[in-house]
Amino acid sequence: MSKPLNSAERLEERGAMSEALLDVRGLTARVGDREVLRGIDLVVPAGEVHAIMGPNGSGKSSFAHVLAGRPGYELLGGEVRFLGRDLLSLAPEERAREGLFLGFQYPVEIPGVNNAYLLRAALNAARRHRGQPEVDAFDFLNLVRSKMQLMRMDESFLSRGVNEGFSGGEKKRNEILQMLVLEPKLAVLDETDSGLDIDALKIVAAGVESLRSPERGIVLVTHYQRLLDHVKPDRVHVLARGRILRSGGPELALELEKRGYDWLLDEAA
Amino acid sequence: MSAPDFIHRLREDFDAAAARLPAAVVPAAARRAAVDRLVALGLPGLRDDAWRYADLRPLRSAALRPAANEVLTAGTLPALPAAIAGSQRLVFVDGRLDAAASTPVDDTLLRPLGAPAAGAERSGETRFALLNDAFALDAARFAVHGDGVLELVFVASDAAGASYPRVQLELAPGARLTLVERHVGTGAATLSSAVAELALGRDALCRWYRLQDLAGDATHLEALRARLDAGATLEAVMLQLGGGAVRTTFDCDLYGRGASLQLHAASLAGGARTQDGAITVRHLAPETRSQQELRAIASGRAGIAFRSAVCVGRDATGADSRQSLKGLIGGDGAEVNLRPELEIDVDSVRASHGATTGAIDEGMLFYLLSRGLDRDTARQLLEWAFIEAVIGGVGDGALRREFEERTVAHLGNRAALEVLA
Question: Whole-prediction pTM value?
Answer without folding.
Answer: 0.84
